[in-house]
Amino acid sequence: MNDIASNIAGIRERIAAACRRVDRNPEEVRLIAVSKVKPAAQIEAAFACGQRRFGESYVQEFRDKSPAVQAPVEWHFIGGLQTNKVKYLRGKVAMIHSVDRLSLATEISRQWQKIDACCKILLQVNIGEEEQKSGCLPNDLEQLVRPVAELPNLQICGLMCLPPHCTETEEVRPYFRRLRELAAQIDSLQLPDISMTELSMGMSGDFEVAVEEGATLVRVGTAIFGERVRKN
Ligand SMILES: *Cc1c(COP(=O)(O)O)cnc(C)c1O
Nearest residue CA, atom 6 of ligand 1? Predict the structure, then answer.
């Protein structure tokens, strides 16, 4: 097996083991291979090992690279997104994980309306309430969800977070738990046409903890493709 194949197999095993520890069905957890900064050939290689979902963070890179990927991959956009760049993702991504403001959601709705389709979105929460991080503050979430839920051509599917950097893996657990609790809180509002079933949380260093805390989408880059040269 090549590196990518064995890395993916190893991660799938670790996800399954984390599920067993907390009595979850491993089929509830989907692996997103974060391929930012990595070439199309590596995406094709991962696809050949059965990997279907790929996450990208930079619009320009996605525009340049995605046409070079022949395999029918499912793209997820997970990075910071400027409103004026949403048009480049229109119809090309299955889900946008990083929606953190009404103006962005409104533009996604407007763009997907043009193709008479529906974009799945997650609301990104600044779960550690860090000054430099994007994401909606936990206390503002309800105020964001209500108007976004009214927009046509998009579907709120759940929440996403990028927790504070922690040196010990266990330190991150309360943030993941908090995201799950927030999702339950929003769910209890019983707003029409929204769902809180997806929790996008966990990266290379902490995806097992995230799975134990209820992640349904884990975003793993380095542990599949190796170190990235560009920072982020
Ligand atoms: C880069 C990135 C990841 C993947 O990080 P790794 O540590 O390489 O697994 C996950 N989520 C987001 C939002 C990212 O930008």
Answer: 221
